[in-house]
Design brief:
The structure holds two protein chains of two kinds. Chain A is an all-beta fold. Chain A is about 0% helix and about 55% strand. The radius of gyration of chain A is 13 Å and the shape is globular. In chain B, the strands form two sheets. In chain B, strands 2, 4, 5, 9, 10 and 11 form a six-stranded mixed beta sheet that branches. Chain B has a five-stranded antiparallel beta sheet with strand order 1-3-8-7-6, with no helix packed on it. The radius of gyration of chain B is 14 Å and the shape is globular. The chains are: A mainly beta, B mainly beta. At the A-B interface, β4, β5 and β10 of A face β5 and β9 of B.
């Protein structure tokens, strides 16, 4: 079974803190993604990586950065957390085509 | 106009009922189509791919109508365990995996 593991299920951080969300996959997938999911807005792509050290901005990259130093690990960084970044964050991985995405269990981040 | 649109519901149906969801997409070059299922506070998981000729998996039938640019999901003999949010996903022909576009989901509740 494909496994995508996110480091935390729930996080509470203060405004202005630097936040790291970690994601690890065990299927040797080239593609990894970070999404955020908000009620009524669905899943929105923050960043995408198609190889080690390669990344592309998604639809809402502002306020976020990513790191992919190893193929199995993709980290999302909130440089200075703000309350509007309170959300569910989902990591996913896939092989190149047919693009079936496997998701981690999600991290519910609350910024206070 | 959103790239992928779904009726958010909620659809509340009695056990044993047949229920159908539609999902419309705006990019006529879309090539791959999927239905994902997301249980409350859980990650999305692939339910089924949607093929041009339509496909069936037990009580679930998926269909594609390219002329009208929509996909559908039919659930027969609904079970309580079918209660979830159903997300449709489309990708364009030749597009990169970052172009997985998710609908915001249709919420289904099956009532006893």
């Amino acid at each position: 079974d494909v496994k995508v593991t996110q480091s935390s299920r729930y996080l509470v951080k203060r405004t202005g803190e630097k936040v790291f969300l970690e994601c690890v996959q065990d299927m040797d997938h080239e593609n990894m993604f970070w999404y955020r999911q908000d009620p009524g807005l669905g899943l929105r792509l923050i960043y995408f990586s198609y190889d080690v050290k390669m990344k592309e901005k998604g639809d809402i990259p502002e306020g976020y950065s990513v790191s992919r130093e190893k193929k199995e690990r993709f980290s999302l960084i909130l440089e200075s957390a703000s309350t509007n970044q309170t959300s569910m964050y989902l990591c996913a991985s896939s092989s190149p085509g047919p693009f079936e995405a496997f998701f981690g269990q999600g991290t519910r981040l609350t910024v206070v | 106009r959103k790239e992928v649109e779904q009726d958010p519901g909620p659809f509340n149906v009695p056990e044993g009922a047949t229920v159908a969801f539609n999902c419309t997409y705006s990019n006529s070059a879309s090539q791959s189509f999927f239905w994902y299922r997301q249980d409350c506070r859980k990650e999305p998981k692939l339910l089924m791919s949607v093929y041009s000729s339509g496909n069936e998996d037990g009580r679930f039938t998926a269909q594609l109508n390219r002329a009208s640019q929509y996909i559908s999901l039919l659930i027969r003999d609904s079970k309580l365990s079918d209660s979830a949010t159903y997300l449709c996903v489309v990708t364009p022909e030749g597009g990169s995996a970052r172009q997985l576009t998710f609908g915001s989901g249709t919420q289904l509740t099956v009532l006893p």
